[in-house]
Write a structure and sequence with these properties.
The complex is a heterodimer of chains A (89) and B (405). Chain A has 89 residues and is mostly helical. Chain A has two domains: 1-34; 36-89. Chain A has five helices and no strands. Chain A has helices at residues 6-24, 30-33, 37-44, 59-73, 77-87. Chain A is elongated, with a radius of gyration of 18 Å. Chain B has 405 residues and is mainly beta. Chain B folds into two domains: 1-48, no CATH class; 49-404, Porin (Beta Barrel). Chain B is built from two helices and 21 strands. A 16-stranded antiparallel β-barrel of chain B has the order 1-3-4-5-6-7-8-11-12-13-14-17-18-19-20-21. In chain B, a hairpin with a 5-residue loop joins strand 9 (200-202) and strand 10. The radius of gyration of chain B is 32 Å and the shape is globular. The chains are: A mainly alpha (89), B mainly beta (405). Chains A and B meet through helix 1, helix 4 and helix 5 of A and strand 1, strand 5, strand 6, helix 2 and strand 7 of B.
Chain lengths: 89, 405
Amino acid sequence: MKKINNKTWIMIAASAILVAIAINGCVESKLVAAKSGAQLWAENCQRCHNTPSPNSFSHEQWATIGLHMQTRAQLTDKEREKIVAFLSQ
Amino acid sequence: MKKLNKLFFLLAMSASPLVALNSHAQQVVTDSTLLDRITTLEQQVADQKPGESHFMVVGLATFGFVQNKTIFTPPGGVSSSVKTNSLANADNYELSPMLLWRHGKNFLVEFEPSFDGTTLGVNWANISYFAAPGLIIHAGYFVVPFGIYSKRLAAGWIDKVATDPAGFDLPGSDFGVGVSGGLPLGSMKWSYDVSLTNGLQLLPDGELQGAGVADNNNNKTVSGRLSLLPLSNSSLEIGVSALHGGVADVGSGYNNANVTMYGADINFVKTIDPLLINIKGQYNRINVNKQNYASPTDSSLYSFNNKTSSFFGQLSVRPIGLDQPILKNFELAYRYITYTTPSNSAWGQNYHESDFGLDYWLSWRTVLKLSYERTHALSTANSAIGGSTGVTDVNSIYLQFSIEF
């Protein structure tokens, strides 16, 4: 394998630091924090396909699908938690 | 009378222990049946105990019918036409089970084999680790993050028209590692999705394809998409993508061949009562740096500007707010595509496509689609190296059924 040069390492380190700062600096507004699971479900799941009915899957299945959809839709962790809690009711 | 009262009193007194005894016996019986029922219920609950892991199979199936008419007009010549129809072709047959394993709260394994009527391929074989809020690390074989179509919209039960848009196959699925996440930004949101993969391979005619599990060179490819959801209701998402990597086989005669891709995408979904409005679009650009290619006819060298661009824009509306149970399940869609491959290459063309779709949703994940698609391709290929010239028009009608199960 070709040796990764110093410049590349510096670039990788710099971007890792930037990402870390960006992730930590991200907070939600009060408006967003107050949203219920039902509202987040209605707003987010229709972005790609029709809004799924909560009856389609069981509690355990929704927990798995929640992770799966987080990888597809880059949901925030809070969104996923609230939506899964709502769908499992 | 007094005596009689006394007698009654005595009788009652002597009978009372009997009554008490009887009710006690009843109590014991009730308690033991209750206990039995509780034990059975406990057993049932224990049988249902979720545990830390969970496995499920979902998936999708799409099949249908297509009829098309192809009209070919050679330069300065007379057109000829061919009609075909078939019950399932690569564009409208697919069965892909999606196996999902959740391991605790932080791991998800996904494996999606896919049968397209001729080959059994794989779309996803990937492990994700939910490392921290806003940080998912994943590795395996996955759809490379670039734009929105391939990763998010390609499933038959998600796509509003029967076919995939032309010109969005690359970068496709690849082997590698990646990080992604979505994060709040006040009332907005942003997301990132970045990967390092084996990358693409430059073919002798200048086209690109996925390099596969064994890389064709020592260069890895970086690809990523950044997106912003500027509205607090998440209705609008704007994304930009980029990819860069080496594409030449080791030891090939290409001169430091590499590819740079850029992309932009938009997604807007909102109910403006009674209509659900859905706008989706993506623009891709693929640039391969200047190279000399060997002509297949006489092995002489030739070159061309190896730049490809593709665009699709799609609008669909569904009267979701209507009380009419039948009407509210219909959705109307229109999609426009342009796809320009390099002129003077062996595969150069200016391609346009217009698609009209009428969908009927049997449930949120089951759809019957009727699509009419018109394509027009003007060849800009180099005939000296074997490229075919002329104009090809294809009109197709699709009837397609798709389900997520």
